[in-house]
Amino acid sequence: MVGKELDDDIPEHKFFLKYGPGFELGMSPGCRQDRNDSVYLNTVMKSVLDKLSFIWPPEPILNSVEKQHSLNGESRPHTPASTKLQARSASHSRDGEARCPYEWEDF
């Protein structure tokens, strides 16, 4: 799914027995049908993104120039527009798709 191969060996932990009877992560495709329709997947994705909208964006990291200005009591230098964090609500995306409310954007 994310382009990485996982080792089939499962390290021991308190839920190890839940991986029985084979105790391996790997699954063969077999004849299983994909019963996840697009409506269900979109509902799950919207729910997750709605919950993520309650998470505050990370604090900006001050570089050494900004730290020096703040130590001298000067105002902070202008931050380039390409690095500003723009908060966008999931309902106001450009393409109408649900998305994470915080994203880096070029202006």
TrEMBL record:
The Basic and acidic residues compositionally biased stretches are 92-107
Give the top-rank taxon of the lineage listed in the UniProt record for this protein: Eukaryota
Biased region (Polar residues) positions are 80-90
| Disordered, as annotated region | 66-107
Q: What is this protein called?
A: Histone deacetylase
Q: Which organism is it from?
A: Ornithodoros erraticus
